[in-house]
Amino acid sequence: MNDSGDTSRRWRVKPLFAALAVAVGAAAVWVAMRTSSEPLAADANAKEKAAPMQQGQAAGKPALTVSLISAQSAEWPRLLLANGSIAPWQEAVIGAEISNYRLTEVNVNVGDTVRKGQVLARVSSDNVATELAQSKAALAEAQATVAEARANAERARQLQTSGAISAQQINQYLTAEQTALARVHAAQARVQADELRLAQTRVVAPDDGVISARTATVGSLAQPGQELFRLIRGSRLEWRAEVTEAELARVRQGAIAKVTTPNGNTVRGRVRMVAPTVDPQTRNGIVFVDLPIDATGTVVRAGMFARGEFELGTAPALTLPQSAVVLREGFAYVFRLDGESRVAQTKVSVGRRAGDRIEITGGLDAAARVVASGAGFLADGDLVRVAPATPAQPR
Protein backbone atom coordinates (compact mmCIF):
# COMPACT_ATOMS: atom_id res chain seq x y z
CA MET A 1 0.00 0.00 0.00
CA ASN A 2 2.73 2.44 0.87
CA ASP A 3 4.66 1.85 -2.32
CA SER A 4 1.65 2.47 -4.48
CA GLY A 5 0.85 5.71 -2.64
CA ASP A 6 4.36 7.05 -3.06
CA THR A 7 4.31 6.18 -6.71
CA SER A 8 1.05 8.07 -7.28
CA ARG A 9 2.42 11.20 -5.53
CA ARG A 10 5.56 11.17 -7.69
CA TRP A 11 3.45 11.04 -10.85
CA ARG A 12 1.47 14.10 -9.68
CA VAL A 13 4.63 16.26 -8.94
CA LYS A 14 6.32 15.69 -12.30
CA PRO A 15 3.66 17.49 -14.40
CA LEU A 16 3.92 20.49 -12.03
CA PHE A 17 7.67 20.87 -12.57
CA ALA A 18 7.24 20.53 -16.28
CA ALA A 19 4.69 23.34 -16.38
CA LEU A 20 7.00 25.65 -14.37
CA ALA A 21 9.91 24.96 -16.73
CA VAL A 22 7.79 25.83 -19.76
CA ALA A 23 6.69 29.12 -18.16
CA VAL A 24 10.25 30.14 -17.30
CA GLY A 25 11.45 29.43 -20.81
CA ALA A 26 8.65 31.45 -22.36
CA ALA A 27 9.48 34.43 -20.12
CA ALA A 28 13.17 34.32 -21.09
CA VAL A 29 12.29 34.27 -24.78
CA TRP A 30 9.98 37.32 -24.34
CA VAL A 31 12.66 39.35 -22.51
CA ALA A 32 15.27 38.58 -25.16
CA MET A 33 12.94 39.63 -27.97
CA ARG A 34 12.04 42.88 -26.13
CA THR A 35 15.70 43.77 -25.53
CA SER A 36 16.76 43.17 -29.10
CA SER A 37 13.90 45.29 -30.48
CA GLU A 38 14.76 48.47 -28.47
CA PRO A 39 18.13 49.25 -30.24
CA LEU A 40 16.48 48.74 -33.57
CA ALA A 41 13.79 51.23 -32.68
CA ALA A 42 16.40 53.76 -31.41
CA ASP A 43 18.42 53.39 -34.60
CA ALA A 44 15.31 53.95 -36.64
CA ASN A 45 14.46 57.17 -34.71
CA ALA A 46 18.02 58.49 -35.10
CA LYS A 47 17.97 57.84 -38.81
CA GLU A 48 14.65 59.63 -39.11
CA LYS A 49 16.06 62.71 -37.27
CA ALA A 50 19.33 62.74 -39.23
CA ALA A 51 17.62 62.43 -42.56
CA PRO A 52 16.52 66.12 -42.76
CA MET A 53 20.03 67.34 -41.76
CA GLN A 54 21.65 65.17 -44.38
CA GLN A 55 19.18 66.38 -46.92
CA GLY A 56 19.95 70.01 -45.96
CA GLN A 57 23.70 69.46 -46.24
CA ALA A 58 23.27 67.71 -49.53
CA ALA A 59 21.30 70.69 -50.72
CA GLY A 60 24.21 73.13 -49.70
CA LYS A 61 22.67 74.97 -46.74
CA PRO A 62 24.68 78.20 -45.98
CA ALA A 63 26.61 78.23 -42.69
CA LEU A 64 26.11 81.99 -42.07
CA THR A 65 24.60 85.11 -43.55
CA VAL A 66 27.39 87.65 -44.03
CA SER A 67 27.97 91.12 -45.38
CA LEU A 68 30.96 91.86 -47.58
CA ILE A 69 33.35 94.80 -47.70
CA SER A 70 36.49 95.75 -49.59
CA ALA A 71 39.68 97.24 -48.21
CA GLN A 72 39.89 101.03 -48.22
CA SER A 73 42.95 103.15 -48.96
CA ALA A 74 43.77 106.02 -46.60
CA GLU A 75 46.67 108.27 -45.57
CA TRP A 76 47.83 107.12 -42.17
CA PRO A 77 50.61 108.53 -39.97
CA ARG A 78 53.89 106.62 -39.91
CA LEU A 79 54.71 105.87 -36.28
CA LEU A 80 57.88 104.67 -34.57
CA LEU A 81 57.36 103.01 -31.18
CA ALA A 82 59.94 103.41 -28.41
CA ASN A 83 60.44 103.05 -24.67
CA GLY A 84 62.42 105.18 -22.26
CA SER A 85 62.64 106.98 -18.94
CA ILE A 86 61.53 110.46 -17.94
CA ALA A 87 64.32 112.54 -16.43
CA PRO A 88 65.05 116.20 -15.61
CA TRP A 89 66.31 118.33 -18.47
CA GLN A 90 69.02 119.64 -16.12
CA GLU A 91 69.31 119.04 -12.38
CA ALA A 92 71.27 121.59 -10.33
CA VAL A 93 73.06 120.52 -7.14
CA ILE A 94 72.85 123.28 -4.52
CA GLY A 95 75.16 123.51 -1.50
CA ALA A 96 76.48 126.12 0.93
CA GLU A 97 79.42 128.21 -0.27
CA ILE A 98 80.85 128.65 3.22
CA SER A 99 81.72 125.82 5.56
CA ASN A 100 81.79 124.98 9.26
CA TYR A 101 78.77 127.12 10.06
CA ARG A 102 75.46 125.72 11.25
CA LEU A 103 72.24 125.87 9.28
CA THR A 104 69.71 128.02 11.11
CA GLU A 105 66.80 127.91 8.61
CA VAL A 106 65.52 125.55 5.91
CA ASN A 107 62.68 127.20 4.01
CA VAL A 108 61.71 124.71 1.28
CA ASN A 109 60.92 121.04 0.90
CA VAL A 110 60.83 118.48 -1.89
CA GLY A 111 58.26 119.37 -4.55
CA ASP A 112 58.25 123.11 -3.85
CA THR A 113 58.38 125.43 -6.85
CA VAL A 114 60.97 128.18 -6.36
CA ARG A 115 62.07 131.30 -8.20
CA LYS A 116 65.58 132.39 -9.07
CA GLY A 117 67.22 134.11 -6.06
CA GLN A 118 64.71 132.74 -3.54
CA VAL A 119 66.28 131.92 -0.15
CA LEU A 120 66.24 128.17 0.38
CA ALA A 121 68.20 128.03 3.65
CA ARG A 122 70.25 130.26 5.96
CA VAL A 123 73.61 129.64 7.62
CA SER A 124 74.57 131.22 10.95
CA SER A 125 75.88 134.73 10.14
CA ASP A 126 76.95 136.06 13.56
CA ASN A 127 80.67 135.38 13.17
CA VAL A 128 80.71 136.60 9.59
CA ALA A 129 78.91 139.81 10.57
CA THR A 130 81.50 140.42 13.29
CA GLU A 131 84.37 139.91 10.86
CA LEU A 132 82.68 142.33 8.46
CA ALA A 133 82.47 144.97 11.16
CA GLN A 134 86.18 144.56 11.87
CA SER A 135 86.99 144.91 8.19
CA LYS A 136 84.97 148.08 7.93
CA ALA A 137 86.76 149.54 10.95
CA ALA A 138 90.15 148.69 9.42
CA LEU A 139 89.03 150.39 6.21
CA ALA A 140 88.08 153.54 8.10
CA GLU A 141 91.49 153.57 9.80
CA ALA A 142 93.25 153.13 6.48
CA GLN A 143 91.22 155.93 4.95
CA ALA A 144 92.23 158.28 7.81
CA THR A 145 95.86 157.34 7.34
CA VAL A 146 95.70 157.98 3.62
CA ALA A 147 94.20 161.42 4.26
CA GLU A 148 97.17 162.37 6.46
CA ALA A 149 99.67 160.88 4.02
CA ARG A 150 98.07 162.70 1.10
CA ALA A 151 98.31 166.06 2.94
CA ASN A 152 102.00 165.51 3.76
CA ALA A 153 102.75 164.51 0.20
CA GLU A 154 101.02 167.60 -1.14
CA ARG A 155 103.13 169.92 1.10
CA ALA A 156 106.28 168.10 0.03
CA ARG A 157 105.46 168.73 -3.61
CA GLN A 158 104.97 172.43 -2.90
CA LEU A 159 108.33 172.71 -1.09
CA GLN A 160 110.19 170.57 -3.56
CA THR A 161 111.54 173.58 -5.51
CA SER A 162 112.18 175.79 -2.46
CA GLY A 163 114.90 173.58 -0.97
CA ALA A 164 113.30 173.81 2.51
CA ILE A 165 113.32 170.03 2.84
CA SER A 166 115.60 167.45 1.43
CA ALA A 167 114.81 165.23 -1.49
CA GLN A 168 114.93 162.21 0.80
CA GLN A 169 112.15 163.56 2.99
CA ILE A 170 110.10 164.42 -0.08
CA ASN A 171 110.41 160.80 -1.30
CA GLN A 172 109.40 159.52 2.13
CA TYR A 173 106.19 161.60 2.10
CA LEU A 174 105.32 160.52 -1.42
CA THR A 175 105.99 156.86 -0.58
CA ALA A 176 103.88 157.09 2.58
CA GLU A 177 101.01 158.40 0.45
CA GLN A 178 101.21 155.44 -1.92
CA THR A 179 101.49 152.97 0.98
CA ALA A 180 98.41 154.43 2.67
CA LEU A 181 96.44 154.20 -0.57
CA ALA A 182 97.46 150.52 -0.94
CA ARG A 183 96.32 149.82 2.60
CA VAL A 184 92.96 151.41 1.81
CA HIS A 185 92.56 149.21 -1.23
CA ALA A 186 93.43 146.12 0.82
CA ALA A 187 90.94 147.09 3.49
CA GLN A 188 88.27 147.63 0.85
CA ALA A 189 88.97 144.17 -0.55
CA ARG A 190 88.61 142.64 2.90
CA VAL A 191 85.30 144.40 3.37
CA GLN A 192 84.07 143.12 0.03
CA ALA A 193 85.17 139.59 0.91
CA ASP A 194 83.36 139.70 4.22
CA GLU A 195 80.25 141.14 2.59
CA LEU A 196 80.35 138.27 0.09
CA ARG A 197 80.72 135.73 2.88
CA LEU A 198 77.79 137.34 4.66
CA ALA A 199 75.70 137.04 1.48
CA GLN A 200 76.74 133.40 1.19
CA THR A 201 75.06 132.64 4.48
CA ARG A 202 71.89 132.74 2.38
CA VAL A 203 71.53 129.62 0.20
CA VAL A 204 69.53 130.79 -2.82
CA ALA A 205 68.03 129.12 -5.90
CA PRO A 206 70.24 129.57 -8.99
CA ASP A 207 67.24 129.33 -11.33
CA ASP A 208 63.49 128.83 -11.44
CA GLY A 209 62.47 125.23 -10.90
CA VAL A 210 61.23 122.48 -8.60
CA ILE A 211 63.06 121.07 -5.59
CA SER A 212 63.61 117.37 -6.35
CA ALA A 213 65.74 116.41 -3.32
CA ARG A 214 66.68 117.84 0.07
CA THR A 215 69.31 116.78 2.61
CA ALA A 216 69.54 120.06 4.54
CA THR A 217 68.46 119.97 8.20
CA VAL A 218 68.47 122.73 10.78
CA GLY A 219 71.46 122.52 13.12
CA SER A 220 73.78 120.59 10.82
CA LEU A 221 77.17 121.95 9.87
CA ALA A 222 77.64 123.05 6.28
CA GLN A 223 80.62 121.28 4.73
CA PRO A 224 82.54 122.07 1.53
CA GLY A 225 80.91 120.36 -1.44
CA GLN A 226 78.01 119.06 0.64
CA GLU A 227 74.72 118.74 -1.28
CA LEU A 228 71.80 120.47 0.41
CA PHE A 229 69.19 120.54 -2.38
CA ARG A 230 68.60 119.36 -5.95
CA LEU A 231 66.70 121.58 -8.34
CA ILE A 232 65.03 120.63 -11.64
CA ARG A 233 65.93 123.69 -13.67
CA GLY A 234 62.98 125.45 -15.22
CA SER A 235 60.70 122.59 -14.07
CA ARG A 236 61.56 120.97 -17.40
CA LEU A 237 61.41 117.22 -17.88
CA GLU A 238 62.38 115.20 -20.93
CA TRP A 239 61.65 111.74 -22.25
CA ARG A 240 64.84 109.85 -23.10
CA ALA A 241 63.58 107.33 -25.65
CA GLU A 242 65.74 104.38 -26.68
CA VAL A 243 65.65 103.81 -30.44
CA THR A 244 67.48 101.07 -32.33
CA GLU A 245 70.43 102.04 -34.48
CA ALA A 246 68.51 101.05 -37.61
CA GLU A 247 65.62 103.40 -36.85
CA LEU A 248 67.57 106.27 -35.29
CA ALA A 249 68.11 107.96 -38.66
CA ARG A 250 64.34 108.20 -39.20
CA VAL A 251 63.89 110.58 -36.24
CA ARG A 252 64.45 114.27 -36.91
CA GLN A 253 64.78 117.25 -34.61
CA GLY A 254 61.39 118.89 -34.07
CA ALA A 255 59.37 115.72 -34.67
CA ILE A 256 56.25 115.24 -32.53
CA ALA A 257 56.22 112.44 -29.96
CA LYS A 258 53.23 111.14 -28.01
CA VAL A 259 54.25 109.77 -24.60
CA THR A 260 52.02 107.45 -22.55
CA THR A 261 52.74 107.16 -18.82
CA PRO A 262 52.18 103.99 -16.75
CA ASN A 263 48.85 105.34 -15.46
CA GLY A 264 47.53 105.80 -18.99
CA ASN A 265 47.91 109.57 -19.30
CA THR A 266 49.23 110.93 -22.59
CA VAL A 267 51.31 114.04 -23.28
CA ARG A 268 52.76 115.39 -26.50
CA GLY A 269 56.37 116.49 -26.72
CA ARG A 270 58.87 117.59 -29.34
CA VAL A 271 62.24 116.09 -30.21
CA ARG A 272 64.97 118.41 -28.95
CA MET A 273 68.01 116.39 -29.89
CA VAL A 274 69.05 113.00 -31.28
CA ALA A 275 72.13 111.55 -29.61
CA PRO A 276 75.18 111.52 -31.91
CA THR A 277 76.35 108.15 -30.52
CA VAL A 278 74.94 104.65 -30.05
CA ASP A 279 75.45 102.49 -26.97
CA PRO A 280 77.84 99.71 -28.04
CA GLN A 281 76.21 97.27 -25.59
CA THR A 282 72.54 97.70 -26.48
CA ARG A 283 72.98 99.17 -30.00
CA ASN A 284 70.38 101.78 -29.09
CA GLY A 285 70.55 105.55 -29.35
CA ILE A 286 68.84 108.13 -27.15
CA VAL A 287 66.30 110.61 -28.48
CA PHE A 288 65.67 113.55 -26.14
CA VAL A 289 62.06 114.77 -26.17
CA ASP A 290 61.05 117.97 -24.37
CA LEU A 291 57.81 117.57 -22.39
CA PRO A 292 55.37 120.41 -21.55
CA ILE A 293 56.22 122.22 -18.32
CA ASP A 294 52.59 122.26 -17.12
CA ALA A 295 52.66 118.44 -17.01
CA THR A 296 55.63 118.29 -14.62
CA GLY A 297 54.65 116.84 -11.26
CA THR A 298 51.09 116.03 -12.35
CA VAL A 299 51.01 113.89 -15.49
CA VAL A 300 54.74 113.10 -15.72
CA ARG A 301 57.32 112.75 -12.98
CA ALA A 302 61.06 112.24 -13.06
CA GLY A 303 62.02 108.58 -12.90
CA MET A 304 58.91 107.25 -14.68
CA PHE A 305 59.24 104.62 -17.40
CA ALA A 306 57.06 105.54 -20.35
CA ARG A 307 56.15 104.24 -23.77
CA GLY A 308 55.67 106.49 -26.74
CA GLU A 309 55.56 106.88 -30.47
CA PHE A 310 57.15 109.33 -32.88
CA GLU A 311 55.12 110.78 -35.74
CA LEU A 312 57.23 110.51 -38.88
CA GLY A 313 54.81 111.83 -41.48
CA THR A 314 52.10 109.96 -43.38
CA ALA A 315 51.96 107.05 -45.82
CA PRO A 316 49.14 105.34 -47.77
CA ALA A 317 47.55 102.33 -46.06
CA LEU A 318 45.12 99.60 -47.17
CA THR A 319 42.75 99.14 -44.23
CA LEU A 320 39.96 96.86 -43.02
CA PRO A 321 37.82 96.91 -39.88
CA GLN A 322 39.39 94.84 -37.13
CA SER A 323 36.21 92.74 -37.03
CA ALA A 324 37.11 91.38 -40.49
CA VAL A 325 40.49 90.02 -39.33
CA VAL A 326 40.66 86.74 -37.41
CA LEU A 327 43.69 85.67 -35.36
CA ARG A 328 44.32 81.93 -35.43
CA GLU A 329 47.45 80.12 -34.26
CA GLY A 330 49.40 83.35 -34.20
CA PHE A 331 48.52 84.43 -37.74
CA ALA A 332 46.00 86.89 -39.18
CA TYR A 333 43.36 85.70 -41.65
CA VAL A 334 40.42 87.14 -43.58
CA PHE A 335 37.64 85.22 -45.31
CA ARG A 336 37.56 86.22 -48.95
CA LEU A 337 34.54 85.51 -51.15
CA ASP A 338 35.53 82.79 -53.61
CA GLY A 339 32.88 82.48 -56.31
CA GLU A 340 29.31 83.44 -55.51
CA SER A 341 28.62 81.86 -52.12
CA ARG A 342 31.77 80.20 -50.80
CA VAL A 343 34.54 81.76 -48.70
CA ALA A 344 38.26 81.03 -48.69
CA GLN A 345 40.43 81.58 -45.61
CA THR A 346 43.28 83.90 -46.67
CA LYS A 347 46.41 84.64 -44.64
CA VAL A 348 47.33 88.34 -44.51
CA SER A 349 50.02 90.54 -43.00
CA VAL A 350 48.94 93.39 -40.73
CA GLY A 351 50.63 96.63 -39.69
CA ARG A 352 49.44 99.85 -38.10
CA ARG A 353 46.21 100.23 -36.17
CA ALA A 354 44.03 103.33 -35.85
CA GLY A 355 40.75 103.24 -33.98
CA ASP A 356 38.75 100.19 -35.12
CA ARG A 357 40.71 99.73 -38.35
CA ILE A 358 43.88 97.80 -39.12
CA GLU A 359 46.37 98.09 -41.96
CA ILE A 360 46.75 95.15 -44.36
CA THR A 361 50.33 95.10 -45.61
CA GLY A 362 50.20 91.96 -47.74
CA GLY A 363 48.29 88.88 -48.81
CA LEU A 364 45.11 90.57 -50.03
CA ASP A 365 44.16 92.23 -53.30
CA ALA A 366 42.62 95.68 -52.94
CA ALA A 367 39.58 94.66 -55.02
CA ALA A 368 38.83 91.48 -53.04
CA ARG A 369 35.61 91.29 -51.03
CA VAL A 370 35.89 89.86 -47.53
CA VAL A 371 33.50 89.02 -44.72
CA ALA A 372 32.96 92.13 -42.60
CA SER A 373 32.08 90.48 -39.26
CA GLY A 374 31.43 87.07 -37.79
CA ALA A 375 34.42 85.56 -39.57
CA GLY A 376 35.41 83.74 -36.41
CA PHE A 377 32.47 81.34 -36.93
CA LEU A 378 33.58 80.34 -40.44
CA ALA A 379 35.98 77.74 -41.80
CA ASP A 380 37.81 77.51 -45.09
CA GLY A 381 35.40 76.56 -47.89
CA ASP A 382 32.15 77.26 -46.00
CA LEU A 383 29.02 78.19 -47.92
CA VAL A 384 27.57 81.57 -46.94
CA ARG A 385 24.56 83.66 -47.78
CA VAL A 386 25.59 87.15 -48.90
CA ALA A 387 23.38 89.87 -47.45
CA PRO A 388 22.33 92.57 -49.94
CA ALA A 389 24.27 95.78 -49.68
CA THR A 390 22.58 98.56 -47.74
CA PRO A 391 21.93 101.60 -49.99
CA ALA A 392 23.70 104.77 -48.96
CA GLN A 393 21.51 107.25 -47.10
CA PRO A 394 21.03 110.59 -48.84
CA ARG A 395 22.62 113.55 -47.10
Short précis:
By secondary structure, the protein is an alpha+beta fold. It has 3 helices and 21 strands. Strands 3-11-14-13-12-15 form a 6-stranded antiparallel beta barrel.
Strand share of the residues? 25-35%
Q: Within the largest sheet, what's the order of strands?
A: 3-11-14-13-12-15
Helix-strand category = alpha+beta
What is the number of domains? 3
In helices, the fraction of residues equals 25-40%
The number of distinct β-strands equals: 21
Task: Please state the second-level CATH architecture of the largest domain.
Answer: Beta Barrel
How would a crystallographer describe the biggest sheet?
A: 6 strands, antiparallel, barrel
Give me the Rg, rounded.
51 Å
How many helices in DSSP terms?
Answer: 3
Average pLDDT reading: 82
- CATH class of the largest domain reads Mainly Beta
**C-alpha termini separation:** 125 Å
Please describe what this structure looks like.
This protein has 395 residues and is α+β, with helices and mostly antiparallel strands. It has 3 domains: 1-61; 62-89 and 241-389, conserved putative lor/sdh protein from methanococcus maripaludis s2 fold (Beta Barrel), CATH 2.40.420.20; 91-214, Helix Hairpins (Orthogonal Bundle). Helices cover 31% and strands 33% of the residues. It has 3 helices and 21 strands. It has helices at 2-58, 126-159, 167-199; strands at 64-66, 68-70, 72-88, 91-94, 103-106, 113-114, 119-123, 202-204, 209-214, 229-233, 237-244, 256-260, 266-274, 284-290, 305-321, 326-328, 331-337, 343-354, 357-362, 369-371, 384-386. It has a 6-stranded antiparallel β-barrel. The chain has a 4-stranded antiparallel beta sheet with strand order 4-10-9-6, with no helix packed on it. The chain has a 3-stranded antiparallel beta sheet with strand order 5-7-8, with no helix packed on it. α2 (126-159) runs antiparallel to α3. The radius of gyration is 51 Å and the shape is rod-shaped.
